[in-house]
């Protein structure tokens, strides 16, 4: 008995075989259009009776002639349904049947294409089929899950969740076709392979759809917002430039651009920066008010040219990089500190590189208790600046057990160092090296120098952490500079104090002082409170600086020339901004109520100045000033967001996945950022606690201008950003430290030379104004000097000791962490007063 034809054949006439499996199908509606206009000629029946059209066979009569004049389709459901849907001669019933056939196919993707099973089913991924077959074997000891089919909506949701899981857990796309993964899902539900996407679908259609949705959401988020753009370079086989956009405290990846073969001179970089700005403004309808990049030769020149071409863009160098540069300055000004850092790095490297030696120190740490876990001996990382401070502080913390092991177990340490070596020369070299480090550990002068080094670089690393946050403001950066300046102003070594002050002043002179100073003044919680008595502040001069900066930011050329009415309105706004600023400085008018309730408002809402200014946007008299203040305070002046994107890319483009294209990596980064934000908002993941690299009791003492602890709460959980994208390497030897310091010094020297050349052309990157000549530029010493400093604590005189007390004191000191006074040797008896016998 022949198989039953599918219902769509009722609207087609079957012709000759097109191939070994399928026949040609001729639409009856199309055939009727070629019916001869003669009497007694019967139409092709819509119900499918074609014998009436001829003399008993398909080759007889007018139908055979008509078949040569129309185009046939392949006799499968998809082709026949597609023809009926679009055919102008098909009946309504035929179109309805075709639509129904299409829906049936969607509901059963794995079914046959025809009821007679002449068309093979849609193929699954080969691995899915193979695993399904294996799971059907009777001798298999595993079980299959419940047999419930998925509908189309469920399938779509499941596949989207597969993509989210892949990106969120940083899994390879091919994990869904892993046989054991497939078996696992089949154990939950036997039809799991019906909805599991293959690696091609996962990395193709699903990723493209999600990335497209992210792009649409980005356009909504940035629409009408003030945006700060940033860019930085990265090398991973190819040179890539990452471009980000920051708005409302969030950083978004905008683009990844291949830089192969492109120039990096000032003109080329300026053209690239302008292209980034134009593209973002055109696609999102935002307003780019700031641009941040590196301060190397090409980027620096390109940034300065950008300000000349587009003065309304506040372009600055990345301030998070200043921390490393200031650290280099300190090491250059203090050779003793540089030597101590080199010795400390070599010491930690020696301990970590000799396992048996490390075991001895660990045993002293734990007191021989196997249940206790010894602290690790940390090494500074080449590409993470703050790790050097952390490593030095850890070494200081382990001072007591390290010294105890060096003194009490020196022979064991030497034996562990030499090991089974038989060569006499090598034994002598190893013994000499071990004795040198043992002597270093027992040298109190080394520990005193290390303590001074750690105390000096801690404020530098502190502002580095602050300056790399996604919401770091210009006023915070200025206060950080001032704090480090005042810290080194009080340094005990005059040459270090003088040298560091000069270097910090030079870095401050290269910055856009109008922008940074006005950002601090427009912080309603600060205003002028941080400036010293020597600043010589004049409110009217500040008003002039503010107005010039306001005009500069609003100097963007209009699409059409301004009419007289529009010009008058522009001048009215400028006058309103000036009047509102004077009211703001005096705390009168609309600002009077805030001054009265400032402390209460701060206790409830925190010290975010942007939140305060948002409350004045609806006030007619001060709305323009409020909008301008939000613009200045919202500019993020670091590349931390770009650096974190590169860190994320290094996680995704691993050694085993190095064939991922950068466009696909870009999509993965964008989708992954949205997934992390959604999970954080839903409470599914916990934000990492702020780093505790600094003792809470010392935070207020690190810098003379406090209020920085809360800033660290906004720091991204990702690792510290990096100055150059090189493989992370630990500094664990003298040679490594010298190489690191030399590379840093070369970079700093190159920047200084470029800065000196630029000073000959122009002292600043912004146009000069009359107000600047009166007050700005101004040194940090004048801006923040003249404050009443805390009087140094007077040292209490030591009491006289008798012999017994002296011996007890010396014995206790030998087993304590107390450092000897300057010029005193441990156990020397310098404290002994012979007259007290």
TrEMBL record:
Q: Which InterPro entries match?
A: RNaseH-like_sf (IPR012337)
Ranges annotated as biased composition (Acidic residues): 753-762, 816-837
Under SUPFAM superfamilies, the record lists:
Ribonuclease H-like (SSF53098)
Give the compositionally biased regions (Basic and acidic residues): 101-112
The segment annotated Disordered runs over: 98-123, 752-771, 809-837
The protein's name: Ribonuclease H-like domain-containing protein
Organism field: Mycena pura
């Amino acid at each position: 008995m022949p198989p039953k034809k599918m219902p769509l054949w009722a609207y087609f006439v079957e012709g000759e075989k097109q191939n070994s499996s399928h026949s040609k199908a001729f639409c009856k509606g199309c055939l009727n259009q070629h019916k001869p206009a003669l009497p007694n000629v019967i139409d092709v029946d819509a119900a499918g009776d074609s014998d009436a059209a001829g003399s008993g066979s398909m080759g007889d009569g007018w139908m055979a002639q008509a078949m040569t004049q129309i185009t046939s389709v392949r006799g499968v459901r998809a082709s026949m349904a597609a023809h009926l849907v679009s055919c102008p001669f098909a009946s309504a019933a035929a179109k309805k049947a075709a639509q129904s056939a299409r829906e049936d196919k969607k509901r059963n993707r794995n079914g046959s294409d025809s009821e007679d099973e002449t068309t093979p089913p849609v193929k699954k991924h080969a691995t899915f089929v193979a695993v399904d077959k294996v799971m059907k074997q009777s001798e298999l000891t595993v079980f299959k899950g419940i047999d419930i089919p998925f509908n189309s909506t469920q399938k779509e949701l499941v596949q989207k969740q597969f993509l989210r899981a892949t990106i969120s857990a940083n899994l390879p796309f091919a994990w869904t076709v892993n046989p054991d993964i497939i078996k696992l899902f089949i154990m939950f539900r036997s039809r799991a392979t019906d909805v599991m996407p293959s690696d091609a679908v996962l990395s193709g259609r699903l990723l493209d759809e999600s990335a497209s949705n992210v792009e649409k959401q980005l356009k909504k988020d940035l629409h009408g917002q003030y945006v700060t753009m940033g860019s930085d370079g990265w090398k991973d086989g190819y040179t890539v430039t990452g471009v980000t956009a920051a708005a409302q405290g969030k950083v978004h990846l905008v683009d990844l651009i291949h830089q192969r073969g492109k120039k990096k001179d000032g003109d080329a970089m300026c053209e690239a920066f302008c292209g980034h700005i134009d593209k973002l403004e055109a696609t999102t309808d935002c307003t780019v008010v700031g641009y941040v990049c590196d301060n190397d030769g090409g980027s620096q020149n390109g940034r300065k040219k950008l300000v000349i071409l587009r003065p309304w863009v506040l372009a600055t160098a990345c301030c998070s990089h200043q921390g490393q540069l200031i650290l280099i300055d300190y090491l250059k000004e203090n050779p003793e500190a540089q030597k101590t850092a080199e010795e400390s790095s070599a010491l930690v490297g020696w301990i970590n590189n000799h396992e048996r030696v490390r075991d001895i120190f660990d045993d002293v740490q734990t007191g021989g208790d196997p249940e206790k876990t010894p602290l690790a001996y940390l090494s500074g990382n080449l590409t993470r600046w703050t790790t050097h401070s952390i490593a030095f502080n850890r070494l200081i913390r382990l001072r007591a057990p390290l010294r105890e092991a060096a003194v009490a177990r020196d022979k064991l340490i030497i034996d562990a160092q030499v090991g089974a070596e038989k060569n006499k020369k090598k034994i002598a070299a190893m013994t000499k090296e071990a004795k040198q480090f043992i002597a270093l550990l027992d040298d109190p002068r080394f520990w005193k120098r290390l303590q001074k080094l750690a105390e000096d670089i801690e404020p530098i690393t502190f502002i580095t952490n602050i300056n790399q946050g996604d919401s770091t403001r210009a006023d915070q950066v200025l206060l950080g500079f001032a704090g480090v300046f005042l810290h080194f102003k009080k340094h005990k070594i005059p040459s270090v104090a003088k040298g560091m002050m000069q270097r910090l002043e030079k870095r401050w002179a290269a910055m856009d002082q109008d922008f940074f100073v006005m950002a601090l003044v427009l912080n309603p919680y600060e205003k002028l409170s941080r400036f010293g008595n020597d600043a010589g502040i004049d409110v009217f001069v500040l008003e002039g600086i503010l107005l010039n900066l306001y005009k500069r930011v609003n100097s963007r050329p209009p699409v059409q020339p301004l009419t007289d009415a529009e010009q008058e309105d522009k001048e009215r706004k400028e006058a309103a901004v000036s009047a509102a600023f004077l009211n703001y400085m005096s705390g009168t008018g609309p600002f009077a109520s805030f001054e009265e309730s400032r402390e209460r408002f701060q206790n409830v809402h925190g010290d975010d100045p942007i939140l305060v200014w948002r409350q004045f946007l609806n006030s007619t008299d001060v709305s323009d000033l409020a909008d301008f203040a939000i613009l200045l305070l919202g500019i993020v002046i670091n590349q931390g967001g770009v650096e974190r994107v590169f860190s994320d890319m290094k996680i995704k483009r691993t050694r085993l996945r190095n064939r991922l294209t950068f466009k696909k990596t870009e999509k993965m980064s964008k989708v992954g950022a949205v997934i992390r934000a959604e999970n954080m908002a839903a409470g599914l993941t916990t934000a990492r606690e702020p780093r505790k690299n600094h003792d809470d009791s010392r935070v207020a003492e690190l810098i003379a201008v406090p209020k920085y602890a809360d800033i660290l709460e906004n720091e991204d959980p990702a690792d510290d950003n990096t100055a150059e994208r090189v493989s992370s390497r630990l500094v664990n030897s003298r040679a490594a430290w010298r190489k690191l310091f030399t590379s840093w010094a070369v970079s700093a020297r190159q920047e200084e030379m470029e800065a000196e050349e630029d000073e000959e052309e122009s002292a600043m990157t912004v146009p000069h104004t009359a107000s600047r000549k009166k007050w700005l530029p101004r040194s940090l010493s004048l801006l923040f000097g003249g404050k009443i400093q805390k009087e140094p604590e007077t040292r209490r005189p030591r009491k006289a000791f008798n012999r017994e007390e002296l011996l007890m004191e010396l014995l206790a000191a030998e087993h304590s962490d107390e450092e000897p006074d300057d010029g005193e040797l441990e156990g020397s008896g310098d404290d002994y007063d012979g007259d007290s016998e």
